């Protein structure tokens, strides 16, 4: 896909410990947990590539080498598959290594999402960039979620952030934004708060896993002090960016969002993606009916 939105680079923070999925993530990065048979991070990178991204900066931590290995050539595997008469699968494996130019940057301390993004500063440089969280999936085959934000950035020159309305009482689990609705699922953001205390949220509009940010965010990230949870929060830096007059928009992204960092969300994503596969759909539906009848 030709990138008409002038955003060439994407950052994927992937240095977290994945404690919600222990013991599975003791030795396997949570971003490599499969959605049916495709690692979660591959689906996220595929979204970025379909939007025109050419370079992906993965913020890694200790023990995350499996991510780099997955996007590298596996010559022995490809050769063996061809020798066994399965060239189609061998070609599919080779395609993974040519999806994108992968740049790995180590986050040496788990200091929060804002710090993780800041670790990409040198690799990204002085240009607008995308941020995609590695356990957040937006399923839209026709119009990638991050591309929708790129269009808003291209039109306005401002930061664009994916938002969704969350149920009452769930606001404390998210970064929350408030501002003026401009129609067509767009909000001019005036206020932001990370995980507000129950009953104090300015709205029910939550930030969800996708951002397109201008280079002007870097000084704000560098100056951000630890906030909620004792971590350097991306939301705090974005609040300062919005307050500087740079402008910021919240965008209701079209597509089905799956929180693959939550156990139930992960199971839901597996079912949803399996149901999209013609060779699996009927079998999955039959399995669901059988289990429901048993319950």
Characterization of this structure:
By secondary structure, this protein is α/β, with parallel strands linked by helices. The chain has a single domain, classed as Spore Coat Polysaccharide Biosynthesis Protein SpsA, Chain A. It is built from eleven helices and 13 strands. A five-stranded mixed β-barrel has the order 8-11-9-10-12. The chain has a two-stranded antiparallel ribbon with strand order 2-3. The protein has a two-stranded antiparallel ribbon with strand order 7-13. A hairpin with a 2-residue loop joins β2 (34-35) and β3 (38-39). α3 runs antiparallel to α4. The longest helix has 17 residues, at 278-294. The radius of gyration is 20 Å and the shape is globular. It starts with 8 loop residues before the first strand and ends with a helix.
């Amino acid at each position: 896909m030709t990138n008409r939105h002038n955003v060439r680079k994407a950052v994927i923070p992937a240095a977290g410990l994945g404690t919600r999925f222990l013991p599975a993530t003791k030795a396997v990065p949570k971003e490599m947990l499969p959605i049916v048979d495709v690692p979660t991070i591959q689906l996220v990178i595929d979204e970025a590539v379909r939007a025109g991204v050419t370079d992906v900066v993965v913020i890694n931590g200790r023990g995350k080498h499996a991510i780099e290995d997955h996007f590298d050539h596996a010559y022995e595997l490809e050769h063996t598959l061809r020798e066994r008469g399965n060239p189609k699968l061998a070609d599919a494996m080779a395609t993974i290594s040519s999806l994108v130019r992968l740049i790995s940057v180590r986050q040496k301390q788990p200091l929060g999402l804002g710090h993780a993004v800041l670790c990409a500063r040198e690799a990204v440089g002085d240009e607008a960039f995308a941020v995609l969280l590695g356990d957040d999936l937006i399923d839209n085959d026709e119009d990638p979620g991050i591309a929708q934000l790129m269009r808003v950035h291209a039109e306005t020159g401002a930061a664009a952030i994916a938002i969704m309305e969350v149920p009452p009482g769930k606001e404390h689990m998210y970064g929350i934004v408030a501002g003026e609705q401009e129609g067509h699922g767009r909000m001019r953001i005036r206020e932001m708060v990370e995980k507000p205390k129950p009953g104090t949220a300015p709205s029910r509009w939550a930030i969800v896993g996708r951002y397109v940010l201008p280079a002007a965010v870097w000084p704000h990230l560098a100056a951000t002090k630890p906030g909620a949870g004792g971590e350097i929060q991306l939301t705090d830096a974005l609040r300062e960016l919005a307050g500087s007059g740079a402008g910021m928009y919240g965008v209701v992204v079209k597509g089905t969002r799956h929180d693959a960092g939550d156990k139930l969300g992960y199971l839901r994503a597996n079912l949803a993606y399996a149901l999209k596969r013609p060779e699996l759909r009927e079998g999955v539906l039959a399995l669901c009916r059988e289990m429901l009848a048993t319950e």
